[in-house]
Design a protein that fits this description.
The complex is a heterotrimer of chains A (343), B (309) and C (348). Chain A contains twelve helices and no strands. Chain A is an all-alpha fold. In chain A, α7 packs across α10. Chain A starts with 18 loop residues before the first helix and ends in a 9-residue tail after the last helix. In chain B, α3 packs antiparallel against α6 (157-172). The two termini of chain B are 42 Å apart. Chain C is built from twelve helices and twelve strands. Chain C has helices at residues 69-77, 103-109, 131-143, 147-160, 166-170, 179-191, 209-226, 237-243, 261-266, 271-280, 285-288, 339-347, and strands at residues 29-38, 43-53, 58-62, 85-93, 96-97, 114-117, 197-201, 229-234, 246-251, 254-260, 328-329, 335-336. In chain C, 33% of the residues lie in helices and 20% in strands. In chain C, α4 crosses α6. The chains are: A mainly alpha (343), B mainly alpha (309), C alpha/beta (348). Chains A and B meet through α1, α6, α7, α10 and α11 of A and α3, α4, α8, α9 and α10 of B.
Chain lengths: 343, 309, 348
Amino acid sequence: MTAISLTRGDAGAAGAARPRRRRGRAALAAIGGGLAVLVPIVFLSTFITYSLGALSNSNPAATILGQDAATPAAVARLDNALGLNQPLVVQYWNWLAQAVHGNLGRSYFTQIPVSQSIAQRLPVDLSIAILALILAVFIGGTAGTVAAIRRGGWFDRGVTIVASAVTTLPAFVVGILLVVLFAVSAHVFPANGYVPPSAGLGPWLSHIFLPSLALSLAVSADIARQLRTSLVQVLEQNYIVGARVRGLPYRRILFRHALRNAAGPALVILGYDFPQVLAGAVAAEAVFSLPGLGQLLLPSAQTRDIPVVQGLLLVISVVVIVVNLVVNATLNWLYRTGGGVGA
Amino acid sequence: MRARSRVTGRNGPGSVLRLPSARIAVGVLVAIAFLAVFGSALAPQNPLAINSDALFQGPGSHHLLGTDYLGRDVLSRLMAGTRLSVLTALEAVGIGLVLGAIPGVATVFMGSSVDFAVNRVSDALMTLPYIFFAVAVTAALGNGLPQAMIPVGILLAPPFFRVTRAATLEHARAQYVEAAELLGASRLHVVRVHVLRKVLPNIAVTTATITAAALLAVSFLTFLSIGVQPPTPTWGGILSSDLAYLAQDPWAPFIPAALIAVTVGALNALADAFRDRAHAGRLVIADPIIRTDLSLEGADGDRQPQAAA
Amino acid sequence: MAIDNRKPPPDLLASRSGTGRQATGDDVLRLDDLHVSVHGGAATAVRGVSLRIRPGEIVGLVGESGSGKTLTCRAALGVLPDGCAVERGTVSFAGLDVTSLSRRGWERLHGSHMGAVFQDPASYLNPVLTVGGQLAEVLRVKLRMTRREARRRALELFEAVGLRQPERVYDQIPAELSGGMLQRVMIAIAISCDPQLLVADEPTTALDVTIQAEVLELLRQLRDERGLAILFVSHDLAVITALCDRIVVFYAGEVVEAGPTGEIAQRPRHPYTQALLRVASVGDFRRRGLEVIAGQPPRVGADITGCRFAPRCPLAVPECAAGPIRSVLAGDQHEVRCVHAARAVTAS
């Protein structure tokens, strides 16, 4: 293939690679750049979380030994054994090195490995968070789409009002209200408790449905609002008229042309809201009595079980950052041709 | 034309009050603030008084909002709880404002690598959920609400940072700033006099929304019993006990929920009013909450379609 | 001058259906006393427009911006913008009244029976999808082709409309192509399902002069080889006279003159048409764009009694503002809306 263009007005021909590969490469470069920025941030946040634990002015050795056995000599010996008399940065490094191998230490009090406790409870929160996001996409996506199509109508105005109302309530309040409405008054869903998927898909879903729904409403509101705005803009574009005069069916135009281009900003919301949803899962645990990370964190904080707290914070930070990365990467890849609203 | 006072005129701070929704919002917030200061004194009953004869009573003449599981008057508890919730929320907002606004203005003048680094830190902070850090801090610094709100404040700083940075960028390059510098004014003076004045409306918007977020955070923390010991009343704490006794009184949670919602809604409405005021260059302002068709623009500013030639 | 027999299809530009679509004499498009309102009914931008297009005919709508020609062709296509509506009159396609056609009905007509190209082709294509993909989509949806078939036919169509390296173009997104190439792509898409009518709204206005000539030649070829009727809209009378069989002159929402191109060009009867021809005949194309006709057209939808061109007309008489001006036949298929022409006709 010659490098010289023989076609009049063919702007991008000279010596370039095939169009698809060119665009893909640019997207990968952007993702790589994002990674490079995020790694130092991971270090920074893990260091902060670690220091928070170490900031405690309590004497962990004394706490472990108990009041009677905490003679200065015993404390000093335990300090040495636990590595507590070394400079903070060294302690941090050792801890991080161990953490990378999955060893997050043991609880001061129960001696159960922290990683084990976390591994037991993380799936509960994750399943609720993920289901919440899925629900949010459906609820928010549908609401936003219909609001945009019947723009100015009663549905549109209703969605705006409901969305504003929902965001004024914290997730746990919404959860409580849902419990009142659907569990106590109507007995449709269980009010509390958790059942792992291994005990049956049905019971598992019925137990996590209300908590997920509670968490999803705030995100749905955000998605609906953003999607409505984007979609209204996209529907005004000429290429929608272009698609119509080609005789394409309405539904196809809506999904494959309009929504595909308008969905970007709304999907970004998903990545942005995920940490909030995870935090909300802690609230949901309290409301619905679920055995999740929050129920591990709260008592550990009260008893100053430092390794547990540190381990939890590390896991949370890493999960949040990884999700962020994945979402950004996915969106960069999906929209690598640079489309979207107003493009 | 009759003269208007500087406060209620077109550009004064009181111009916010032109919109009906803003007026309602300010009214609500003033009431809340009043309660925060005088709540305990004004409460009709003692919020801590246990009365085992009057458990779970519905609203009545003696107890306007009913009683809780220990026979305590709900209305009084709510009023008394306002102070702690509001004050700690404001504490977090204050921390966020200081931690965010100062770097926001400063990094504009400090070179692009500093700018880049601070921006990345701000982005990272924005992604982290505050609840875990708030709990962790109580492990480190003791179980108190003021301590717990410190990480909340820190994590609320990024929005302030963004807003002040954006506004500073916009105005620091303006010609009048260059002119002032040429005339010999020091950079600090320029910043203080010119830039800050322009930045203020945007900060007002963010402050209102962040205060709402902080209030929600306080409710959340007190709901989880972080930082307070019962029987101290807090909005979140009341919700938590309501949840525990849902079987006996299923409709109890609606009351504190409504209180939270109304306050947060008022703050959001105020923020919207500030936002419109900050864009005061537009032709007509449409009330974003309560529809008053002042112009051909819809409430969300959509244009009317133009006819094709 | 209608084409009433087609050459047997020698190449891919020719019609594939092979059967005559309708009997000669049935208009492909017919507008009768069309009135279009804008701004939600507040103003009438198109008044009493009537025109017909026969099979294989190229009809040109010419007029200034705001004269109502674009709205008219949008009404004919059934894609009026929000707030605009047909207030009075009818639109008929191949004998079928489509004035109040449902959305489904228009979906069936669009693509298969009428296609459209517009002024800024890049904006009428989805910016994130490849142009080849968008053409193939139409083929798969409307003609039920498989992916492979659709791709092959798309490449053939690209080649037929004059795109070199069709395989390369297939994989490009609109932003990577020039205006001329994009317009060819749009034409390819518009004719891909072999429609009877092509509506072209200022398709060459934004193109270089040389590309413009090529596109016009392409349109002519399409008409010659497959009997495609074309509704061509432009403000450039030179382009219209070069391409079209018949001309319809618009002013301020009304048709002021209409007739065969030769007639209009040699014997224009309406003062506005005469002025337009004077402007178009200026050799220096740079001066052509300047306002040579003194004054401004009336505001869209303004309520004016009598002739709407009168304020700017060198031949205006009091009778012009007296009442509505009828359209009279002043020659072979030559209509004029002017009191002077009417007087001449009654006199003869």
